[in-house]
Specification:
9 helices; alpha/beta
Length: about 290
């Protein structure tokens, strides 16, 4: 692995080499606020928010299926300020300014991100106490990671509008997104986030979810293996998921689950109702870490 600190807008800075065990051999990269980290030959853009209180876990934000660092906007900064926690955001390969990927994405892409990429990112940054905060695909990745016996460093997870199985509402919502992309407005919005990765991000996402082989996709059998506390947030107007999603997580998870269901709220509670979402996360963290 290697770090390229302070260069999210350009890729020309010299890398700081990571050893085979994830130890840093350069100087100063670990303090970089933003830059790129190389994982499996892909450069992943990252942004870090420093802690304002000592001894707290790091919040690791995992974006949605059409997201990246920039789509979080200032929400991670707000949660970090409210809680005192440090935060780490990164864009997965094929999103934002990170390296592109080849299409089609494998139908097991959630597993790859949760079980291979995410642990290596956490190792590279030397994070030994984390709380995952994932939205949509990022929430699914957080749940898969939590179910994988991740060890003592995972203290808990926040799942925002995650999917644990495919369903008609998700398929219908994605088909509507395809129509909006082809009509132009959605493509223009995504180009501002992903630039040259726009086609990769969009077609990789909808191509997997609409693949006939993905129709029966589910992670429900894994949920009983989750032992850490969960905060599960979803809006009643979620255009990609029904109440069956959060009700299944609450019923099947092996650890304690706190539900936060918001009325008049769509698929992105942190954008639709940021005050309520930030407050729910802060309360969850207060109960989790007791500080």
């Amino acid at each position: 692995m290697s770090f390229i600190p302070g260069t999210r807008g350009a890729m020309m800075a010299p890398a700081v080499t990571m050893g085979s065990e994830g130890t840093m051999t350069g100087v100063g990269a670990h303090d970089a606020v933003e830059g790129f980290i190389e994982v499996d030959g892909a450069a992943l853009e990252y942004r870090r928010i420093p802690a304002t209180r000592p001894g707290l876990p790091t919040l690791v934000f995992l974006h949605e299926g059409l997201g990246c660092i920039d789509l979080w906007r200032d929400f991670p900064d707000r949660v970090a300020a409210d809680t005192g926690c440090a935060a780490l955001l990164y864009s997965r390969a094929g999103y934002g300014r990170s390296s592109p990927v080849r299409l089609p994405r494998p139908l097991t892409y959630h597993d790859h991100e949760a079980l291979s990429v995410l642990p290596r990112v956490l190792d590279a940054f030397g994070l030994d106490r984390v709380v995952l905060v994932g939205h949509s695909d990022g929430g699914t990745i957080a749940l898969i990671h939590a179910a994988s016996d991740p060890g003592a460093r995972l203290l808990g997870a926040v799942s925002i509008a995650a999917h644990v199985f495919n369903e008609d509402r998700a398929i219908d919502g994605i088909r509507e997104a395809v129509a909006a992309f082809e009509a132009g407005p959605l493509r223009a919005r995504l180009e501002r986030l992903h630039g040259a990765n726009t086609g990769v991000a969009f077609h990789g996402w909808h191509g997997a979810w609409l693949d006939p082989g993905f129709r029966d996709w589910t992670i429900v059998p894994r949920l009983p293996r989750i032992r850490v506390p969960l905060l599960v947030i979803q809006g009643t107007g979620d255009e990609y998921g029904t109440a069956d999603q959060y009700e299944t997580i609450a019923a099947e998870s092996g650890g304690p689950v706190q539900l936060a269901v918001f009325e008049s709220c769509g698929h992105s509670p942190h954008r639709d109702q940021p005050d309520r979402t930030a407050a729910a996360i802060a309360d969850f963290l207060q109960a989790l870490i007791g500080k």
